[in-house]
Amino acid sequence: MSKKILVTGGNGLVGSQFEGNDYIKYSSKLFDLRNTNHVDSMFRKLQYDPFNLNGVIHTAAKVGGVGGNMKYKGEFFYDNIMMNTNVIESARKHNVKNLVCFLSTCVFPNDVEYPLTEKKIHLGAPHTSNDAYAYAKRMAEVQIRAYREQYGLNYKTVIPTNIYGINDNFDIENGHVVPSLIHKCYIARETNTPLTIWGSGTPLREFIYNKDVAKLTEWVLENYDENEPIILSTSEEVSIKDVVEMIIELMDFKGEVKWDSDKPDGQYRKPSDNSKIKHYLPNFEFTPLYDGLKETIEWFETNYVKVRGYKQIKL
Ligand code: NAP
Ligand code: GDP
């Protein structure tokens, strides 16, 4: 009997990178994970299919950049706390023994000693720009730890930094910085208009390529079994200004660049400590940011009309 892994959010930036017949994916149109009955139906259906469900990779979430997080706090809280609570509880009820759930470095306190480590999640309030998302995600960490303690399940959480790559959400207002900049740079180049960047450009971020996240998550599902989460990070900080320069070069943009200081900078930095993943996988090679951006931009230019966020474009 073959073994399968359910990937929630299988069409998303991370979920799309789990490829092949081992993975089962459903659209949110079929099963809305905010709805407990839908989630129970999904796991019941999987129980009756002729294979063993070998684990769950729970990537589905309401996700956005600093703009989306500030504008839709209610939705970011409700959707995420419902999806996580339902998926983790229904997996338990349906005898799933192995599950990985996604957190984010956004969950960490704003005011805490750097670098961020797996032990520091609950040591203070998150940054106000994304506190609703962060608290909802923190509760998934609490739920997983509680289920490990009470039920002895091999459920665990991963904490990736800022992820980018093909299949990202390129929505200009609500997406993360890399896809938003690529999309804005494309429009500026094609329409001979200035490229407007949010904030001061001084904040620092750690970027990780979605293909690397998927490879590391496959390892976590099979091999990691600890109460504490595990950070997935290159631990290399880059300024927003440097990212802008790389994208401008890769997209051959020659026009004017403007900085809009009315737009938020968000958290100044969130440097994370990747010692734990490096300890387990000392030879893992992270995709260099420049190479990942190059691949992402090539994909974006080729698939422009079908990228997420396309509807906003008026050339
Ligand atoms: P994404 O591209 O926005 O994809 C999210 C997925 O969630 C979509 O496939 C969507 O399914 C699904 N989803 C949303 N609402 C749903 C609902 N009500 N019912 C069922 N499915 C629903 O997200 P991502 O960037 O891959 O993020 C993956 C995980 O990593 C998330 O847990 C996120 O919090 C975490 N993370 C992301 C980043 C980042 O920079 N992107 C950084 C750190 C952590 P449909 O397409 O079928 O609607
Ligand atoms: P965060 O890491 O959760 O704060 O989310 P983002 O991926 O949205 O990154 C936000 C950082 O990028 C902030 O410092 C913004 O000021 C900066 N930034 C510059 N231009 C943009 C843009 O067009 N969209 C977004 N989302 N952020 C931008």
Topology:
Blueprint: E1 3-8, E2 23-25, H1 36-48, E3 52-58, H2 66-71, H3 73-93, E4 98-102, H4 131-151, E5 154-160, E6 162-164, H5 177-191, E7 195-198, E8 204-205, E9 207-209, H6 210-223, E10 230-232, E11 238-239, H7 240-250, E12 257-260, H8 275-280, H9 289-302
Parallel strand pairs: 1-2, 1-3, 3-4, 4-5, 5-10, 6-9, 7-12
Antiparallel strand pairs: 8-11
Helix pairs in contact: 1-3, 3-4, 5-7, 5-9
The structure holds NADP nicotinamide-adenine-dinucleotide phosphate (NAP) and guanosine-5'-diphosphate.
Guanosine-5'-diphosphate binds at residues 65-67, 106, 130, 162, 176-177, 180-181, 184, 197-199, 203, 205, 240, 263-267.
Task: Give your account of this protein's structure.
The chain has helices at residues 36-48, 66-71, 73-93, 131-151, 177-191, 210-223, 240-250, 275-280, 289-302, and strands spanning 3-8, 23-25, 52-58, 98-102, 154-160, 162-164, 195-198, 204-205, 207-209, 230-232, 238-239, 257-260. The chain has 315 residues and is of the alpha/beta class. A 6-stranded parallel β-sheet has the order 2-1-3-4-5-10, with helices on both faces. Strand 4 (98-102), helix 4 (131-151) and strand 5 form a beta-alpha-beta unit. Bound molecules: NADP nicotinamide-adenine-dinucleotide phosphate and guanosine-5'-diphosphate (GDP).
Poorly predicted regions are: none
Arrangement of strands in the largest sheet: 2-1-3-4-5-10
Structural class by SSE content:
alpha/beta
DSSP strand tally: 12
Distance between the termini: 52 Å
* Largest sheet descriptor: 6 strands, parallel
SSE order: EEHEHHEHEEHEEEHEEHEHH
